[in-house]
């Protein structure tokens, strides 16, 4: 799905701002049929949970409703008119006046509706959007709905972050020609000093298609005719880590000399390869430094904010991070566009977090099978497959994206895991054969017990030796960590990336004895991990958990959220940030060696 943009043949209106707002408890059975009565207004984009002081809104389980009036520009007569949501967490419905025009499950990917026949150019309509935060064992991510002793509905999530909900990304009204470009797929290779661009343009109608390749100076460096083909770029400038060099593929539908539709797609020329235990970008070994992150900030929750986007990337640049993982869901597309331009490497992850019934919020145990008819089942797998399709469909052309992560910490050691994951891994590789595929492994899935690791291209591990295990005993933690990493290396011989490691740390807590939760303990734990990483040749990168402190659901082991951030939630550095900066600004792309 192409992101709406202004071109010579397309226009768009941004619908962000203050919308009328109500929960389902405040309105009748069909709130889209009349103006919302509550008197509340909510910001778009933003999660609604932290906007209001009423705990019944913050903790609401079920549908909420957003509403505003919209006028279609009168100049759009003869065009097709669409309403698009960049996301609705986790289930969305869109009404134009009283007509349901779109419905979508999956809280982090876009959907849209053609409303041309409902609203003529120049006319005004009432736009109502319903959003439900309900999760079940058959959704991605999974969850569990319960009712407490007072009859209040509760939502349990199997993930250690707050279930922020609402319209967290932008809403658009946009126009396209009747004969239009609907999708573009670009892949790249390198032959000597030339880049080779393979393209596919999907378009409506029977008119001719042509493409032009334009460099950053605006000069045309290649062209072709036809809906598919290849275009060479002589003396190509590669997209590479730290240097986000981009080209535009300008796709056009033409009728003689007339341009019927035009869409410019930014892309970068680069290659990705896993060779033995190396991860190669443009044929050179790449060593990941960076973080697992979250879309999380004060007041906005998961609401996208360009100011936070710029500041977070500035902090990553300061600390020497060259990459991050979109834990644990697809981030706003603006984040990937910015990563493309900044030369930041991204591991792009689906929202499949919590496919593990023996842990909840990270550490509590349950004696339940994960892969079972009443747990993670065939309907869950179908939703998971759709999440993978939508992720790749949206993000396939971003050069910053170098690997797909199809799940975080699933129970891949349990019976049923291979039957569940093998078709999903195969689907991912069929949809995009150009990028490696991984699933992020948790501590119960060891080299001896994991049932799907042989299907993956890179071993991505989340490990907390010294925190959840061997707490305050870093000497033993170091021995056990190294033993496990060598076990993965010996069995599979593939690249190993630590996608989570860290310790909860209360900013400002200092002690010469370095107890857990102190800034000194976080530093010593990270330094221990780094010693081990430097001793394992198959190791290709380190992503600290987490970039910044973030909000979680209420729990007795969480004090106002998860405190494993290297930065506080308001982006102030802890001591560990300076230690990482010293290491990462010296590492570059070359892994340090101490033995």
Question: What is the strand content?
Answer: 25-35%
Determine the oligomeric state from the structure: single chain
Distance from first to last alpha carbon: 49 Å
Beta-strand segment tally: 32
CATH topology of the largest domain: TIM Barrel
Q: Which class of secondary structure composition applies to the elements? A: alpha+beta
Q: Would you identify the CATH architecture of the largest domain?
A: Alpha-Beta Barrel
Rough outline? globular
| Low-pLDDT stretches | none
* Rg on CA atoms, Å: 24 Å
Rounded mean pLDDT is 94
Q: Summarize the amount of helix as a percent range.
A: 10-25%
The main sheet comes to: 8 strands, parallel, barrel
Q: Can you tell me the CATH class of the largest domain?
A: Alpha Beta
**Fourth-level CATH superfamily of the largest domain:** Glycosidases
- Tally of contiguous helical segments: 8
What do you see in this structure?
Helix 4 runs parallel beside helix 5, helix 6 (about 475-490) packs parallel to helix 7 and helix 7 (about 520-535) packs parallel to helix 8 (about 575-585). This protein has about 600 residues and is an alpha+beta fold. About 20% of the residues lie in helices and about 30% in strands. Strands 25-26-27-28-29-30-31-32 form an 8-stranded parallel beta barrel, surrounded by 5 helices. Strands 3-2-5-10-7-8 form a 6-stranded antiparallel beta sheet, with no helix packed on it. The chain has 3 domains: about 10-175, Jelly Rolls (Sandwich), CATH 2.60.120.260; about 180-265, Sandwich (Immunoglobulin-like); about 295-585, TIM Barrel. Strand 31 (about 495-500), helix 7 (about 520-535) and strand 32 (about 540-545) form a beta-alpha-beta unit. It is built from 8 helices and 32 strands. It holds the Pfam family Glyco_hydro_2_N. Its EC number is 3.2.1.31.
């Amino acid at each position: 799905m192409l992101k709406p943009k202004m071109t010579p043949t397309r226009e768009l209106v941004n619908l962000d701002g203050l919308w009328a707002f109500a929960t389902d408890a405040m309105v009748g059975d069909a709130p889209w049929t009349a103006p919302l009565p509550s008197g509340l207004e909510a910001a778009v984009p933003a999660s609604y949970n932290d906007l209001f002081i009423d705990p019944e809104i913050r903790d609401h389980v079920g549908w909420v409703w957003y509403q505003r009036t919209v006028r279609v520009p009168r100049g759009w007569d003869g065009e097709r008119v669409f309403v698009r949501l960049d996301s609705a967490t986790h289930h969305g419905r869109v009404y134009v006046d009283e007509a349901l025009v779109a419905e979508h499950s999956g809280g982090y990917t876009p959907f849209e509706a053609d409303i041309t026949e409902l609203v003529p150019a120049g006319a005004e309509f009432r736009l109502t959007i319903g959003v439900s935060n309900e999760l079940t064992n058959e959704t991605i991510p999974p969850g569990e709905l319960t009712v407490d002793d007072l009859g209040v509905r509760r939502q349990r999530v199997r993930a250690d972050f707050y279930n922020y909900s609402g319209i967290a990304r932008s809403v658009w009204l946009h126009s396209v020609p009747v004969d239009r470009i609907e999708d573009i797929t670009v892949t790249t290779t390198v032959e000597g000093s030339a880049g080779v661009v393979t393209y596919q343009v999907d378009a409506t109608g029977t008119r001719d298609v042509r493409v032009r390749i334009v460099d950053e100076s605006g000069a045309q460096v290649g062209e072709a005719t036809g809906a598919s083909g290849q275009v060479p770029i002589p003396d190509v400038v590669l997209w590479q880590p730290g240097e986000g060099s981009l080209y535009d593929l300008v796709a056009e539908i033409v009728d003689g000399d007339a341009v019927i539709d035009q869409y410019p797609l930014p892309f970068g020329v680069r290659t990705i390869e896993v060779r033995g235990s190396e991860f190669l970008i443009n044929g050179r070994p790449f060593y990941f430094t960076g973080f697992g992150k979250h879309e999380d900030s004060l007041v906005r929750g998961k609401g996208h904010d360009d100011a936070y986007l710029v500041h977070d990337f500035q902090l990553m640049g300061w600390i020497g991070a060259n990459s991050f993982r979109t834990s644990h869901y697809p981030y706003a597309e603006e984040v990937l566009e910015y990563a493309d331009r900044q030369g930041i490497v991204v591991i792009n992850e689906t929202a499949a977090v919590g496919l593990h019934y023996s842990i909840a919020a990270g550490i509590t145990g349950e004696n339940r099978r994960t892969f079972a008819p009443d747990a993670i089942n065939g309907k869950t797998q179908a939703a998971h497959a759709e999440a993978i399709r939508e992720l790749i469909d949206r993000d396939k052309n971003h050069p910053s994206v170098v690997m797909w992560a199809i799940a975080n910490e699933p129970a891949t050691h349990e019976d049923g895991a291979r039957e569940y994951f093998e078709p999903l891994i195969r689907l991912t590789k069929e949809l995009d054969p150009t990028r490696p595929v991984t699933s992020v492994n948790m501590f119960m899935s060891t080299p001896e017990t994991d049932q799907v690791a042989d299907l993956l291209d890179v071993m991505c591990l989340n490990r907390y030796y010294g925190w959840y295990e061997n707490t305050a005993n870093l000497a033993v933690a170091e021995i056990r960590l190294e033993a496990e990493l060598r076990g993965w290396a010996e069995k599979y011989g593939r690249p190993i990336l630590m996608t989570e490691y860290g310790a909860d740390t209360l900013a400002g807590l200092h002690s010469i004895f370095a107890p857990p939760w102190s800034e000194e303990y976080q530093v010593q734990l990270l330094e221990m991990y780094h010693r081990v990483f430097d001793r394992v040749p198959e190791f290709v990168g380190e992503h600290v958990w987490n970039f910044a402190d973030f909000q979680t659901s209420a729990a007795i082991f969480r004090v106002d959220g998860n405190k494993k951030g290297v930065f506080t939630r308001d982006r102030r550095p802890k001591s560990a940030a300076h230690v990482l900066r010293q290491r990462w600004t010296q590492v570059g792309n070359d892994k340090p060696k101490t033995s």
